[in-house]
Each structure stands twice: as structure tokens, then as C-alpha cells.
Amino acid sequence: YQFLYYGTSVRRPLKELRRTLQATGVNVSRILDIQYPDSRVISFLLHTDFVVEFTSVMHNKGRGTVPLDDYDPLDPAKLKDPKFANLSLELRCQKAHEIQNLRCLRALSFVRRSARLSVARSFLHYERINQKQFDAILAEE
Questions:
Q1: At 77, is the pLDDT very low, low, confident or very high (cuts 50, 70, 90)?
Q2: Measured between alpha carbons, how far is 133 from 101 in angstroms, rounded to an integer?
Q3: What domains lie within the chain, and their CATH numbers?
Q4: pTM score of the predicted model
């Protein structure tokens, strides 16, 4: 599973966004989660087998839209909240990791129950969540 990041000029309600994606030919049932990690960025959580199809539809029917390959949600420069401005670089990196971890846990809460464990395993493998968090998800299942 992976997150794909796209630029966006408007923050739309997710229900409206799903309708728009469906109208362009995207199989929205294969999008596991949608989030806005930054002011002009939207992320889609997809199974890796669906990434090529999704990017193709977004490019061909989405007016040439391509993923932001250089977007890094762990970049401390992405922390826009003024309360983080005076932190050291190390603390800003740590805070960026914490925020990304919370985003992943939030995504897991929205993922269909049938896929949740598989997504959690993937997140654990790529160190998006830790072993303790995975064990808690495993205990829920």
C-alpha cells in the first residue's frame, strides 16, 4: 500500500471529491483513504496494484494531473504551525514523523475492516507505525 500525493488548489469535502473522481472514471472503491496532509496537497492511500491504473486515469481524464513525486510528508519544512517554528531541526523531524504516524493511524480507522490488517502490516513494514501500534490493531481484529 502506498500514498500518492497530488497538488490541489481547492480543499473539497471528501464526498464531493469522490463523486468527481468517479465521474472521471476512477474506481473510488479502490481508494482506501483520502487526506489533505498540506494546504495544497491531497493524498490517496492505494494498493500498489491499483497505482498504475489510478495515475493513468488521473492523467488522461483528470486534465493531465500527475503525482507529486517529490512531496515528502516527513520533511520538517512542511510543518506550517507557528508553534513548531522555534524547535530545533531534530525536534521538527521528530514532530513530522509523529504527525505522519497519526495520519497513518487515522487512515487505518477508515480502511475497510477486511483490508485493515493487511494495510497495518504494510505500514509496519515501512515503519509508518510501530510494533506496539500494530499489536493494538491486531488485538482489535
A1: confident
A2: 10
A3: 1-71 (3.30.70), 72-141 (no CATH)
A4: 0.89
